[in-house]
Amino acid sequence: MNFGFLKTLYGAFLRTRRVTHHFRRLAMFESLGEPGPSRAMPEHLTRDLQRAGQR
User: Fold this and answer.
1) How far, in Å, CA of 55 to CA of 53, rounded?
2) Nearest to 52, CA basis, from 15, 23, 44
3) Sign of the CA dihedral running 46, 48, 51, 55
4) Distance CA 44, CA 50 (A)
5) How far apart (Å, rounded) are the C-alpha atoms in residues 31 and 33?
6) Cα(55)–Cα(19) distance, integer angstroms
7) Per-residue pLDDT tens for 3-48?
8) How far apart are CA 39 and CA 13, in angstroms?
């Protein structure tokens, strides 16, 4: 019996689980801290990007 496929599937499961666990933990720590800087882009950058996209 060839267990290569099962080993590959299990390895993929472990890799994806580890990545999602890592990012979930980061989101939890960010929510506990003080509010950081605003994530909104400055108005002049927004206008410049919109103009560049219309060209």
Assistant:
1) 6
2) 44
3) negative
4) 10
5) 6
6) 39
7) 888 888 888 887 777 766 666 666 666 666 666 666 788 899 889 9
8) 33
